[in-house]
Design brief:
Layout: H1 10-16, H2 22-37, E1 43-45, E2 51-53, H3 63-74, E3 83-85, H4 99-108, H5 112-122, H6 154-162, H7 173-182, E4 184-186, E5 198-204, H8 212-223, E6 228-231, H9 234-237, H10 243-259, E7 266-267, H11 272-277, E8 282-291, H12 293-301, E9 316-324, H13 326-343, E10 352-356, H14 358-364, H15 368-375, E11 378-381, H16 385-389, H17 392-395, E12 399-401, H18 404-409, E13 413-414, H19 417-426
Parallel strand pairs: 2-3, 5-6, 5-8, 6-7, 9-10, 9-12, 10-11, 12-13
Antiparallel strand pairs: 1-4
Helix pairs in contact: 2-7, 3-5, 6-10, 8-10, 8-12, 13-15, 13-19
Length: 429
């Protein structure tokens, strides 16, 4: 029997000892061992309406995951709460790819249908519940402030913690699934008041609103897994968490989580906990990091270009990693249209794909902007661009993006939003 350290209730002990069967005992043991590793004092109940699973792709190499899912389902075990899941990896209809790339995709993700059937049986919230931004209104997985979550997906976790004020650690996909099945997660780290204290003060002293992706990148690379308290952004963003501000924080947070390992940040006067508690959220003797225009430029200039030919003409542009909101889809349509008018052109020069959750795209497709975007030669898709780039034949392509997450994990090259518009409408690099 495992010699656990944390406090367990009598019911939890019973599950660990096999009262609900061998498989549930294994799940309990895994979560207890996980919690003990990180110094958890107990298990706490998951209080959110839905979970979120990071593993969404049916890649052939993931056979242990499929075996595990089969074992769970054969034992009659399903999630106590419905869950959403990260984006699908392939969209052959809307994302440009050649014959060889399509063949590789079919081979790589040959278990996609099988795995999605497993997810459905386990408790998938809906057939459209595939997105890294499941907290969008159209997808409907929106935790409340103070909710305890069992979530994975770094950009979703940092958004839920920071912008929504929910509580979740950066879990792996399997740990997230086990937490959703058991309805309990180990109590440590970002679930605790102490763990949500900021050990860094970030002073934003730029002349204008920083590019969200570059600011997040700078913060992530400096603080790593620590919690930052960001001062000076309210000068540009105001003190209201409206849709535009949430989009900015979504993109900034994704960069902090991928260029570092940030699971929570506070923005002075803006994010829920910072608006309530202010500098009381700052731990004793915090480190300070000043970000001015020169520092942002230094960070951006540090990004390596790992294309075989650094001067190659881009063959594809991805916008939306994490997935775009409805507001961002409309905004990008207007920006691209205006850029083409200035350049005296009617269609983009580089194949361009905007990605968003399927329910968001369905709503967008009912708007006039959707017809405009199509006329401009721009596609939309529900896929995960990262999974697209994991195809080795795609990874060799010169791909550009406005996503620091995609840049970090793939061979894609980062450009700011304004630079993206210039490249795809004027051919500038």
């Amino acid at each position: 029997m495992y010699n656990y350290k944390m406090h367990l209730t009598e019911d939890e002990k019973d599950i660990l000892n096999g009262s609900q069967g061998e498989t549930m005992a294994k799940i309990m043991k895994t979560l207890v061992m996980y919690g003990d590793t990180f110094g958890a004092d107990s298990l706490v109940d998951v209080t959110s309406d839905a979970g979120h699973l990071v593993t969404s792709f049916g890649i052939s190499l993931m056979s242990p995951v499929y075996d595990l899912m089969d074992e769970l389902l054969n034992a009659g075990i399903v999630s106590k709460q419905p869950f959403t899941v990260d984006p699908r990896p392939v969209d052959l209809e809307n994302v440009p790819s050649n014959i060889i790339q399509k063949l590789v995709f079919r081979f790589m993700y040959g278990k996609q249908d099988y795995y999605e059937d497993q997810l459905k049986k386990m408790g998938l919230k809906s057939k459209d519940g595939f997105s890294c931004t499941a907290y969008m209104e159209q997808v409907g997985n929106i935790p409340n402030k103070g909710d305890i979550l069992s979530w994975a997906e770094s950009s979703a976790v940092v958004y839920a913690n920071s912008v929504l004020g929910a509580r979740c650690n950066r879990n792996s996909g399997i740990i997230e699934m086990f937490g959703s099945i058991l309805g309990k997660v180990p109590n440590f780290g970002l679930l605790t008041d102490k763990g949500r204290k900021a050990s860094w003060i970030i002073e934003v002293k730029t002349g204008k609103l920083p590019e969200a992706q570059v600011l997040g990148s700078a913060i992530g690379m400096k603080v790593m897994e620590d919690v930052p308290y960001i001062k000076g952004l309210d000068k540009f963003l105001g003190n209201e968490l409206d849709g535009w501000v949430k989009d900015y924080l979504k993109d900034m947070g994704a960069a902090t989580a991928s260029n570092g390992a940030v699971g929570l940040y506070h923005v002075e006067g803006l994010t829920p906990e910072a608006a309530e508690s202010g500098e009381d959220l700052i731990a004793q003797n915090p480190s300070v990091y000043v970000i001015d225009d020169a520092e942002l430029q230094r960070v951006k200039d540090s990004y390596p270009v790992i294309w075989k030919d650094p001067d190659a003409r881009p063959k594809l542009c991805f916008i939306g990693c994490p997935h775009l909101s409805l507001r961002q889809l409309k905004d990008w349509t207007n920006r691209i249209e205006e850029g083409l008018k200035k350049a005296g052109k009617t269609k983009v020069l580089i194949p361009t794909v905007l990605t968003a959750a399927s329910p968001v795209l369905k709503e967008f497709n009912e708007l006039p902007e959707a017809k405009v975007l199509k006329r401009l030669g721009v596609s939309t898709s529900y896929i995960c661009p990262l999974m697209f780039m994991n195809n080795p034949t795609c990874g060799k392509m010169p791909v550009i993006t406005n996503s620091n997450k995609l840049r970090t994990y793939t061979t894609s090259r980062y450009y700011t939003d304004d630079e993206i518009v210039s490249v795809i409408t004027e051919g500038r690099q």
